Amino acid sequence: MKLPVMIQVKSREAFKKRKKASKMAVDNLKNINGTWYVRVAIPAELRPAFDGKTEFLKSLKTGRKSEAMVLRTKDLHEFKNRIASERRRLVVEQEMSSLSLLPSAARFDELFESLEEIKAGLAEQKQERKKDFEESDYEDIHALEKIEGHRNFLNHLLLEKQALGEELNPAQAELLNELNEFEKLPNKSFKKAEDLLEKLEKSNVLGSFSGLVNNEEEKEQVKALIAEPAKVVKKHPLNEKNFVEFHKYEVKRKVTLRSIDRHVNRLNMLKDFLDKQKFELDYESVRVFLESLDCADKTKTQYLCSFNAFYKFMFNDANFRQKFLINPFMNHAINKVRRGARKEEVRKAFTKDQVKSLYDNAVSQGKSKLADLIQLGAYTGARIEEICQIKLEDLVTVDGVYCFDIKQSKTNAGERLVPIHSKILPMVERLKKDSKDGYLLKTNRGGKYGVKSKEMSSDFSAFKIALGYSKELVFHSFRHTMVTELERADIKNILVMSIVGHEVGGSLSMTFDRYSEGPTPKAKKEAIEKVFFNI
After folding, report:
1. What is the DSSP code (8-state) at residue 500?
2. Could you tell me if 409 and 521 lie in one domain?
3. How many Å apart are CA 48 and CA 51, to the nearest integer?
4. Could you report how far apart the first and last alpha carbons of the chain are, in Å?
């Protein structure tokens, strides 16, 4: 049956309104007179705590929605935290009276989240009691009633224990004794009453958790909260114990120490941020942390790589899986250069003329180590660290071909035999003869992480900058040069990859990685001899 036209129009309008409201709820944005505002609705039951407000609303001072979507994150997180905090406070307020009677099966970690709010509530109550005290001709009626309530509760508990043939625990017995002594005092001063009441409430409300804790760490948390609640922060898995275990795990996986330390340093930065802001570990808090970083988007992506490595490690733990089933480090939008768009800073290959210029300048300036490094880079296409790690024992003859046996590389494919070009053979023999430490090139010891190329890399960078070379031309550019020269000599791709140590991708990976031993040293020697630089 076809609806009347008027009803159809109204239905369409209602649908549009619902769709618009739904979209607004998802975005948490509201446009007022061309300016975008971040908006979060306040649940009806919490509005009295916020002076009857129905929503949090704050101008983002922009008319562009795309910009507003980025700017809203911090305020959105703050508004949601305030709502969540108030909701917890209400729950605590309702349960404080019965908290000490909670069954021992209650989960400590769930209860502990509300402890800070309880302590804050006690401080607020003290101010209210002081006001009541001043308005009642300085008679602390409120405190005396509360103290009597605690006394009745402990006496009732004592009778129950005695009926079971048990005793109060020492802390409860001490409290009951103090209450009985207080009752005997002829003059119950305000200060004495308030101090005793605060101690009772801390002990009965907070101290009731002592029977629920499972380990020493939880006991220390309760003690710390009772002593100084401001120092207690949200509990999250970013802690020293987990970092140590994560470090061990990465070492077993043969990740480099340098990479592991970077992971842990980044995790510590996130930990300090969460502790300072008193944020829980969730998607929004990670988002705010990333936006607080003053670094390039590429660096932020590296932070997320470190965090995800930690998440994968922690996911082996059942308790962690239960609490963090959804990875808070996933789906963070980081600006990336669109595929097909031209990148401003891409490593380029040195031309043959540039290789000659670099070498000639190194020789004329008396930089013999750099001259040797340039020759090795140009005629091997190896990474600078691979070259600096070559030992005399890595100069090997295989099938009659004299080669560099590169054993330490950043990838599996990087571990390869590179034939020694006839043009650099005299230099290699000279370096071999002059070596005092067993390495082909004399470099530093490599420091904590064994990175022997650090000094040479810095020297080359300063050298090429002084000659006016751009950022796109770095030592790694020699690899691009080698690939370019081999391709121009019509060398097969599999040979090129084998010489420079590139992974074989796509459909070829199964055939060559699993079943093939790769090109022979002789074939690689014939290919590399077709590359020539006038140096």
Report:
1. H
2. yes
3. 5
4. 89
SS3 category, 395: strand
Q: Does residue 130 sit in the same domain as residue 179?
A: yes
Q: Check: pTM over 0.90? Answer yes or no.
A: no
Condensed to tens digits (0 to 9), the pLDDT of residues 476-512 reads: 999 999 999 999 999 988 889 889 887 665 444 544 4
CA torsion angle 496 349 432 449 (round to 10) = -100
Please tell me whether residues 395 and 257 are part of one structural domain. no
Judge whether 132 and 141 are in contact, CB under 8 Å: yes
343 domain residue, yes or no: no
- Classify residue 337: in a domain, yes or no: no
Domain boundary among 197, 231, 265: 231
Domain range enclosing 31: 5-94
How far are the Cα atoms of 60, 108, 248 from residue 118, in angstroms, in the given order? 34, 15, 39
% the chain with pLDDT above 90: 30
State mean pLDDT over 43-55: 87
At residue 355, what is the residue type? V
Give the residue ranges of DSSP H helices in 41-184: 65-95, 108-112, 115-135, 141-163, 170-184
Residue 470 pLDDT more than 70? yes
Q: Using the 3D structure, point to which of 94, 120, 144 is the last residue of a domain.
A: 94
Average pLDDT over residues 322-343: 72
- pLDDT for 352: 94
* Banded model confidence at residue 29, pLDDT cuts 50, 70, 90: confident
DSSP string, 253-313: TT--HHHHHHHHHHHHHHHHHHHHHT--SSHHHHHHHHHH--S-HHHHHHHHHHHHHHHHH
